[in-house]
Amino acid sequence: MPLGQEPPQLLKQRLFYEGRKFNFEVNRLRLPNRAEGDWECIRHPGGALAVPVTARGELVMVRQYRFAVMGRLLEFPAGTIEVNEAAGDTIRREIQEEIGYSAQTWLPIGNFPLAPGYSDEIIYAFLATDLEPIETPPDTDADEDIEVVLFTPLQLEKAILAGEAVDAKSIASYYLAKPYLEKLASL
After folding, report:
1. Alpha helices, DSSP H only, in 22-86?
2. Is pLDDT of 53 > 60?
3. What element of type H or E holds 148?
C-alpha cells in the first residue's frame, strides 16, 4: 500500500464487476474519519508511461483515438501493467508496439495516482533516451488507432497551454521529465 496508509473498513461488498482491463466495485465503507457510505472504485493494475526523446531532443508521442472521450488525444506511449509484470517491462513492450522504437537508456522519473477520486490506478513514468527504430514493430492491439507525432518540448508546452487535447498522464509526466529534458538540451 505505497500511497494510502489508512485503508477504510469494508463493511459490505455491494457490487463487483471483473472487466478486461480493470475491475469495478461498489462497497459500503467506514472511512478513517468514521463516515460510512457506499463508494465506487475502479481497481486497476496500474500503467507505465514513457517520455521518449530522440537524439535531436524531440518528444515521440501518439495521437490516439479514445472511445470514452469520443476523439483523439495527444499522449506519450503507455500501457497497462499485466499480471506479474514490472512497470519497466510493460513500457519497454509498449514503446515498441506504439511508436516502433526501443530505448537503450531508461530513467524512472516518478509515479502518481491518475484519478484517486474513483480509481486506485498508479502511473509509473520513465524517461526513454537513446532511441533506435526497430526493424519490424510488433502488431498493435486491434483497438488501437494511433498516429506517431514528434514535438519539441516548447511545441508540447504550447499545445498544453492552448488547450489541445492532451491527456493528464502525459501532462504530468512531461513536467516530471522537464528538468531532465533541459539538462539533455544543454549537453
Report:
1. none
2. yes
3. strand 146-151
Are 46 and 23 in contact by the 8 Å Cβ rule? The answer is no
Q: Chain-centre distance of CA 91, in angstroms?
A: 9
Q: What is the pTM of this model?
A: 0.90
Other CB atoms within 10 Å distance of the CB of residue 46: 17
22-43 average pLDDT score: 94
Q: Are 27 and 10 in contact (CB under 8 A)?
A: yes
DSSP 8-state class, residue 186 = H
Cβ neighbours for 131, distance < 8 A, ≥ 6 positions apart = 52, 53, 54, 55, 60, 101, 102, 103, 104
Spatial CA neighbour of 50 closest among 148, 149, 173: 173
**Helix/strand/coil (H/E/C) assignment for every residue in 92-130:** HHHHHHHHCEEEEEEEEEEEEECCCCCECCEEEEEEEEE
Express each pLDDT in 135-168 by its tens digit.
Answer: 887 676 677 788 999 999 999 999 999 999 999 9
